[in-house]
Design brief:
quinone; transmembrane helix; 3 helices; flat; 2 strands; translocase; single chain; mainly alpha; NADH dehydrogenase (quinone) (non-electrogenic) activity
Length: about 120
Amino acid sequence: MNLPESYIPILLQAGVAIGFVAISLLGAHFLGPKQKKGDSVKNQSWECGVPVEGNARTPFSIKYFLTAVLFVLFDIEIVFFYPYAVNFREFGMEGFLAVLTFVAIFFMAFFYVWKRGALDWDK
């Protein structure tokens, strides 16, 4: 099987990446600290020096996930403002109207979230 010369760098990079992962995993296994079996105090979980209370598998409130989704949503909005802020003169009136439409859509989303009570932290 003859591979075109353009595939050689790709295969080389893939080989280096797979080799790095394999060496890292093997190195961590053989050179890393060994865990002793048993029920000693050293092997127990601690949070900031305080013994753990409860189970780690308890469900979280949906507020945490909703906060993360809202953060990503409005953070991406800011990312899309940057190209407009850098090139607003070149975009002219057409670009301004496009950004105004974009902002209007996000304001509608913000007011929807607000009316639905997603921003009420006391509930």
